[in-house]
Design brief:
Nucleotidyltransferase, domain 5, alpha/beta
Length: about 260
């Protein structure tokens, strides 16, 4: 076989491999898109199922249906933060769910999407000193009321995570584990969590020894060690048992 024929044969082989490779690559791309479409379709069904309570209430004539949730109830330091969220009818924002089931990055992405697309968002904050004075349950209700007052319009129905808000002249439905049952509550849980986390990151600059940027005020091992070493800060909840016990141990060590 001459050199020209050999080169031609090699060219044909390379062309065949290139075409075959392109076909395989195209098939892989198509399969990848098919998987993405299937995931989005499944997610769309999940999201729309979370509109169950909202749809029922809209059919009864309610229009400003508001989801309410709080963040920071179990923390040893920092405020409790509540959010009130009113979403447009059938708004599709993929992957909204209980904030505790999301990564920090995904929560932040969804936080921005909700702020941009929600009809209205309200925030309520109650600081540690008030929590110590009235207890965390009442402080959580107070934060929720503040979040409602922060809305531009008065809601005509509330979907509340957990328990009914007392002394409030608005129709409401409390839902245990509401973040898994209502899209509005799930959205509120994300807003409250991300907003409160940002507050604790700022507090970390003032009180770096407690690692608030990492633990967000919750009772991690490192946080409890810092409490034992330094005692409580101004933003610690001094009525909480674990704060009191570590404060006592800290004072004992100094004597």
């Amino acid at each position: 076989m001459g050199k020209v024929a050999q080169l031609k044969k090699k060219d044909n082989e390379m062309l065949f491999k290139a075409k075959n490779g392109k076909v395989k690559t195209t098939k892989l791309i198509i399969r990848s898109y098919q998987r993405k479409i299937k995931r989005l379709y499944t997610e769309r069904i999940r999201i729309y199922s979370l509109y169950n309570y909202e749809n029922r209430l809209k059919n009864k004539g309610y229009s400003l249906i508001t989801g309410i949730d709080e963040a920071g109830r179990g923390a040893l330091a920092g405020p409790v933060v509540a959010a009130a969220v009113i979403l447009p009818c059938q708004l599709f924002i993929p992957y909204i769910k209980d904030s505790k089931k999301l990564t920090s990055q995904k929560r932040t992405e969804l936080y921005c999407s909700i702020l941009n697309k929600a009809k209205d968002v309200g925030i309520g904050i109650v600081e540690a000193k008030i929590i110590d004075g009235i207890n965390i349950a009442q402080a959580s209700f107070l934060a929720m009321k503040k979040a409602i007052l922060d809305l531009k319009e008065v809601p005509d129905y509330l979907l509340v995570d957990g328990f009914k808000i007392p002394h409030l002249n608005i129709f409401q439905l409390p839902l245990i584990k509401g973040e898994d049952k209502s899209i509005s509550i799930a959205a509120a849980s994300i807003i409250a969590k991300v907003y409160r986390d940002s507050i604790m990151v700022k507090y970390d600059q003032k009180y770096p020894q407690y690692l608030f940027k990492k633990n967000k005020g919750y009772g991690t091992k490192e946080h409890l060690k810092a409490l034992l070493k330094y005692g409580p800060s101004e933003i610690h909840r001094k009525s909480y048992k674990r704060v009191i016990s570590n404060k006592a141990k800290n004072e004992k060590r100094k004597t």
